[in-house]
Amino acid sequence: MAKHRLIRALTPGTIRAALGATVLASAAFGAVAPAHADTPEQVGPASQSSVVQTAQHAAANQRVNVTAQQVLNVARAQIGTSENAAGGGTKFQKWYATSQRAMETVKRDGGAPTEYLNAAWCSMFVSWVGEQTGARPQVGWDAYTVEHARWFAANHRWGSTPKPGAVVFFSWSGSKSIDDINHVGFVVKDNGDGTISTIEGNTGNGRVEARVRPTSQVVGYGYPNYKA
Prior knowledge:
30% of the residues lie in helices and 16% in strands. It is of the alpha+beta class. It has a domain at 67-222: endopeptidase fold (from Nostoc punctiforme). A six-stranded antiparallel beta sheet has the order 1-6-2-3-4-5. A hairpin with a 3-residue loop joins β4 (195-203) and β5 (207-214). α2 crosses α5 (122-133). 45% of the residues are buried. Residues 1-55 have low confidence and may be disordered. InterPro entries: CHAP_dom, Papain-like_cys_pep_sf.
C-alpha cells in the first residue's frame, strides 16, 4: 500500500469519493436539521433551490455550542484506528455509507452508497468527528475533499491562517488550487516553523494518525465557527 494512499482507483461509474464531480452541490452539509434528516419536500425546482441554499448558508455560519478543543479531543481519541486490507472496515466509512449525506453525494457523483465502505475516507473521518461532537453544521460532511473545501469557501469561511480545530486541506504538489486538493484533516496547532501539527484519517497505511506537515503543502483552511 502506497504511503498517503488517499485516492483509490475506482471503476467507471463508481463513486468519485476522491475524484468526484465539480458541482457546488455540497452546501447540503450545513443543514440545521438533525443528522440524516431528509431534505425539504420539493416545492418547485427554483423555489426549493433558493430556500434550501438560504437555510444551508445560514446554518453553516451559525456558531455551534462546541469548542475547537472538544472536536480535537474526539479526533485524537481515534488515533490508531485502521482500515482493513480492502481499504474499508472503519466506523467512519460505515457511518457515512448509511447517512443521508451519502444519498445526496451519490446523486451528485454517481455510484451507490455501499461503495463508500471501501472508498478513501479522510474526509469521512473529518465529517464523522463533526457529527459525534455536534459540530457537523460547522465542520461539514462529505466524502470528496474538493467539495468539502468548496463548501467552506462558498460560506466565506476559507483562509490561509492555521488555527486549532480548523479543517486543513492539502495538495501534495504544493498547488493552492482547491481543484488540486488530495487530503484533509484537523489542525492541532501552528508550530511556528513552517509546519503544523494535525490529526488526519486515512494517512500512512490507512490509519488515523497525528502528523506534522509543512505549510507548503496546504491549499487552505476551513474555519468552523466554534464556541469560544
